[in-house]
Amino acid sequence: MKRKELNVELYKKVYLIRKTEEKIREHYMEDEMKTPVHLSIGEEAIAAGVCMALNVEDQIFGTYRNHGIYLAKTGETDRFFAELYGKQTGVAKGKAGSMHISASELNFLGASAVVATIIPVAMGTSFVNKWKNNGKLVAVFFGDGALDEGAFWESLNFACLKELPIIFVCEDNGLAIHSPTSDRQGYRSISDIVSKFECNVFREETTDPEVIYRITCNAIQLQKNNHKPCFLHFKYYRYLEHVGINQDFKFGYRSEDEFKRWYKMDPVTLQRKKLLENAHSEKELQEIESEIDKQIDNSVKSAQKAPFPDESELFKDVYA
Ligand SMILES: Cc1ncc(C[n+]2csc(CCOP(=O)(O)OP(=O)(O)O)c2C)c(N)n1
Ligand SMILES: [Mg+2]
Q1: pLDDT truncated to tens, each residue of the chain (320 aa)?
Q2: Pocket of ligand 1, candidates 115, 190, 238: which has the most ligand atoms within 8 Å of its Cβ, to mutate?
Q3: In CATH, which of 3.40.50.970, 3.30.450.40, 2.60.110.10, 3.30.70.100 is domain 3-300?
């Protein structure tokens, strides 16, 4: 794909994620979405860049903060919004809500709200892929808090031992809810410590989806050549509170100044600016944006109108 085209596709992804989450903020207080929401506003470049580098058949896994990766991977919003509204037409028939979204037919294989628990599942899937020799890559996204859990280290260890085709994507906002990494981790640098394992480690602090895309492409190439799993460590800033739709600077665990510093590098604003510099016209961008805005509006409207699941659905598709 040519650079100009690539950047348009990346812009579509970051814009879709941002506008979808802003739409959630707009409607959330109506209390029709009966699900907690962990928004990824500020973090869009990682989801967009990594997913852009993956093939359609590659499989991804995430955490409760999964909207960005779901949207970057699938591009669809109908079943996504229906799920948030708890409707029959949702990705998981309204049973999962925001935190446990999965759509295996779109190769979004699952998300879990229990920190780090999706990582062994992703690793196991990658083990199957290697066994079948089917060429599929797994990408598993998690926060810096996942490194506080044994499940992460066991999975990393096994993946390195067996040379599994898996990419660990650490979305590091330096926080687990309100606790900074310095209060939780007995080491200074996540990437340094992971580098002790037999894997390919990349670290970057950027809000540019193109940079994330190129790093991921390099990682995938390296994985193909040396068969070692990859660990991508990306720093980003969470604009909003841990869960919910508000900013939370009044709690005192972080400062608004920090937000203002990161906001100057806002991924959506910068990507838009890049397109204008790359000879795209304002009109062209507005067309792209209005198409995505329409898609989101239509999805919300149909989700609101859709029926709730029938009572007979209550014990179907659940382990009990
Ligand atoms: C095993 C487990 N312990 C504690 C919690 C409570 N909890 C929910 S989110 C969270 C913070 C996780 O931080 P991180 O992994 O960095 O993700 P972020 O929210 O920053 O994206 C914690 C401790 C949980 N869900 N699961
Ligand atoms: Mg975190």
Answers
A1: 899 999 999 999 999 999 999 999 999 999 999 999 999 999 999 999 999 999 999 999 999 999 999 999 999 999 999 999 999 999 999 999 999 999 999 999 999 999 999 999 999 999 999 999 999 999 999 999 999 999 999 999 999 999 999 999 999 999 999 999 999 999 999 999 999 999 999 999 999 999 999 999 999 999 999 999 999 999 999 999 999 999 999 999 999 999 999 999 999 999 999 999 999 999 999 999 999 999 999 999 999 999 999 999 988 988 76
A2: 115
A3: 3.40.50.970
Give distance in angstroms: CA of 144 to centre of ligand 1.
9
* Ligand 1 center–CA 101 separation, angstroms: 17
Smallest CA separation from ligand 1 atom 17, residue: 143
Rounded to 10 deg, the angle between the 3-28 and 209-226 helix axes is: 110
Structure tokens, 305? 């109108």
Q: Is the minimum distance from the CB of 29 to ligand 1 under 6 angstroms?
A: no
pTM of the full structure: 0.98
Q: Hey, whose CA ends up nearest to atom 3 of ligand 1? A: 115
Q: Which atom belonging to ligand 1 lies closest to the Cα atom of 173?
A: 20
224: Cβ contacts below 8 Å, ≥ 6 apart? none
Ligand nearest to the CA of 42: 1
| Cα torsion through 147, 153, 155, 156, rounded to 10 | 90
Q: Tell me the CA–centroid distance for residue 9 and ligand 1, in Å.
A: 31
Whole-angstrom distance between the N-terminal and C-terminal Cα of the chain? Answer: 47
Nearest CA to ligand 1 atom 4: 115
* Nearest to 271, CA basis, from 14, 46, 4: 14
For the record, the structure tokens of 80 come out as 């996504």
Structural domain boundaries of the chain? Answer: 3-300
